[in-house]
Write a structure and sequence with these properties.
83% helix; globular; mainly alpha
Amino acid sequence: METLLTADFWIGIFKIIWIDVILSGDNAVVIALAARSLPPEQQRKAILWGCGFAIALRIALTVVAAKLMEFPFLEILGGCLLLWIGVGLLKGEDAGDGDAQGNGSKKSGMFTAIRTILLADLVMCLDNVIAVAATAQGDMTLLIFGLALSIPLVLFGSSLMIKLMDRFPWIVMLGAGLIGWVAGETIVNDHVLDTVAQQYPALKYIAAVLGAALVLAVGHYLKQRKAAVPQQSLR
């Protein structure tokens, strides 16, 4: 009880709230992009299941995050995975393709969306977990609070983003670009590149811009090619 009355505790609470608000945004964008093409009832299920598994991942990663970050090339692989996910989401693959193909395809689309959410969150939540764990400094109350706070933030944020994407389609491009941006940052953050990153501080931003540009360019090209196939088959 004495811990709750200290200034350090409440400063830690404020820091964790700020960290969660900032770092949960990209996770919400991924969930919204993955679930946006599903029917409304499946959107809710995909968000709930995806967030549920994502929170379980965060709890597990909290225990081993520091050790995971010591593995060489882990963040490079994670960044490449995010690039692939970003391109796929912008292309509009899988999730929306089952709408006219029966109940089995719809279920497959929902499972695909959940799988995409899990894969992306596995990479993107590492920064959140590490930041919260560092701020908590071993205080389990702060650590649990940080994990618990991320649940409503991601749930609310992803639901809001889906509505915004339906109303303003250009937000989909911004969301895909954000995933590419995070992918570029993740690759450069790998500790095998520490020396290069310290020597060239601008490399982080260059990689982020290139990641965003790559996702947007490749995703847009594949989306156009995918849309052109039905037109060619009608000729």
